[in-house]
């Protein structure tokens, strides 16, 4: 038997999430590795998947949790043995496959990554999908020429999960970081993570008639999308890049192509879900080596499985600061 946060849907289509004891036989068929989950984490998508599913969940009852870290309990795949420490992000786990909000998960070996030495399972989930995505964004920007000498790097939605890890990672690598937030009360927190400038969300919220403004940013990790991303594109330095991660402010992009064709600005898409194995390993090894762990700890709040439904509603309203790690045991 194992405990899991189970989302059920009733005849009227209403969903309800609660902790249940399940038999091992309920684990998904088709997986080849059983993991004793130690830590999971809360992401925006988990907020959706604990409610109506946002179109991602098609089969109920469902166990959400898009990422987890733990120890292999049993494996039918030669790459993993009982006792190996592993981490999983992406692959639609927690959406179309039962996820990490449970003491046990049964998944495909292809989706796992061995946990790098020096990273605990709790630290891995303090990083989680959000921090993994932040690292993919840094890797994409640097692959397109970003170096600290080019100037300030902007992070939007900075006090959120991806934003917080992005600020700490960039500052740790010697970048000057400007953090956009709609929550002025998070200024001390963001400065503690390494931000050297705070940009109020309102400064970038309005659309402007001019598609090109003064060149300010050498790079950007954008978690917001919408009109804010359009403004940022017009403020990028020539030949610099924006990593487009999220849509917390909207999926529309009310922009002109002018920054691309007159300034050579690049818009780089970041997809953390389907990442080839070698790139996942590289990202986790860089996280273990480069993320200041003291700063990571400052972002973290802990919760248990039973706290998740309420926290899920909060993250959908932009009301969660930093990273929430879930002690599933
Ligand atoms: P969080 O909810 O933790 O953070 C989002 C932040 O965006 C908030 O904390 C807030 O920051 C800001 N924000 C919220 N609403 C608005 C708004 N209306 N206008 C402007 N800013 C707003 O989410 P995550 O950090 O986990 O994820 C960020 C985004 O990235 C989400 O859209 C998520 O779906 C996406 N994502 C994409 C991934 C990918 O693979 N591409 C992977 C992971 C996440 P502040 O309070 O500082 O203003």
Helix and strand layout, with pairings?
Blueprint lengths: L1 E8 L5 E8 L10 E9 L2 H6 L17 E9 L9 E5 L14 E4 L4 E3 L6 H23 L9 E3 L5 H12 L4 E5 L5 H7 L1 E6 L1 H4 L11 E6 L3 H10 E9 L13 H6 L2 E4 L7 H14 L2 H7 E5 L3 H9 L6 E5 L2
Parallel strand pairs: 8-9, 8-11, 9-10, 11-12, 12-13, 14-15
Antiparallel strand pairs: 1-2, 3-4, 3-6, 3-15, 4-5, 5-7
Bound molecules: NADPH dihydro-nicotinamide-adenine-dinucleotide phosphate.
Structural class: alpha/beta
Domain module count: 2
State which percent range the strand residues make up: 25-35%
The CATH homology group name of the largest domain: Medium-chain alcohol dehydrogenases, catalytic domain
- What is the succession of H and E elements? EEEHEEEEHEHEHEHEHEHEHHEHE
Rounded mean pLDDT is: 96
Rg, Cα atoms, Å: 20 Å
- Span between termini: 12 Å
What are the distinct ligands in this entry?
Answer: NADPH dihydro-nicotinamide-adenine-dinucleotide phosphate
Question: What is CATH's topology name of the largest domain?
Answer: Quinone Oxidoreductase, Chain A, domain 1
Question: What proportion of the residues is helical, as a percent range?
Answer: 25-40%
Number of strands: 15
Q: Quick one: biggest sheet?
A: 7 strands, mixed
Q: How many alpha or pi helices?
A: 10
- CATH architectural name of the largest domain: Alpha-Beta Complex
Approximate shape: globular
What is the top-level CATH class of the largest domain? Alpha Beta
Uncertain segments are: none
Organism: Paragemmobacter amnigenus
InterPro entries: Acrylyl-CoA_reductase_AcuI, ADH-like_C, ADH-like_N, ER, GroES-like_sf, NAD(P)-bd_dom_sf, Zn-ADH-like_protein
Pfam families: ADH_N, ADH_zinc_N
Domain Enoyl reductase (ER): 13-326
């Amino acid at each position: 038997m194992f405990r899991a946060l189970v989302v059920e849907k009733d005849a009227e289509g209403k969903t309800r999430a609660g902790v249940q004891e399940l038999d091992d036989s309920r684990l998904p068929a088709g997986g080849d590795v059983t993991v004793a989950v130690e830590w999971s984490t809360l992401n925006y998508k988990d907020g959706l998947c604990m409610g109506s599913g946002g179109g991602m969940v098609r089969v109920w009852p469902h166990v959400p949790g898009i990422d987890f870290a733990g120890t292999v309990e049993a494996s039918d795949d030669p790459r993993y043995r009982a006792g190996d420490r592993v981490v999983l992000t992406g692959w639609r786990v927690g959406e179309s496959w039962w996820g990490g909000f449970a003491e046990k998960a049964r998944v495909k070996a292809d989706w796992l990554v061995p946990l790098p030495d020096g990273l605990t399972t709790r630290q891995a989930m303090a990083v989680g999908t959000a921090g993994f995505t932040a690292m993919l964004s840094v890797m994409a920007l640097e692959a397109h020429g970003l170096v600290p000498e080019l100037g300030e790097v902007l992070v939007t939605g900075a006090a959120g999960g991806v934003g917080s890890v992005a600020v700490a990672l960039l500052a740790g690598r010697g970048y000057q970081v400007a953090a956009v937030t709609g929550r002025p009360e998070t200024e001390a927190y963001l400065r503690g993570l390494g931000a050297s400038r705070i940009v109020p969300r309102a400064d970038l919220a309005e659309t402007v008639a001019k598609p090109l403004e003064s060149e300010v940013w050498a790079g950007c990790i954008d978690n917001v999308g919408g009109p804010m991303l359009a403004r940022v594109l017009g403020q990028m330095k020539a030949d610099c890049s924006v990593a487009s991660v999220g849509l917390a402010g909207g999926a529309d992009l009310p922009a002109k192509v002018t920054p691309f064709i007159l300034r050579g600005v690049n818009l780089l898409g970041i997809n953390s879900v389907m990442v080839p194995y070698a790139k996942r390993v590289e990202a986790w090894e860089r996280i273990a080596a480069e993320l200041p762990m003291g700063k990571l700890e400052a972002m973290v709040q802990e919760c248990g499985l039973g706290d998740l439904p309420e926290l899920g509603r909060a993250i959908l309203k932009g009301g969660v600061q930093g990273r929430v790690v879930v002690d599933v045991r």
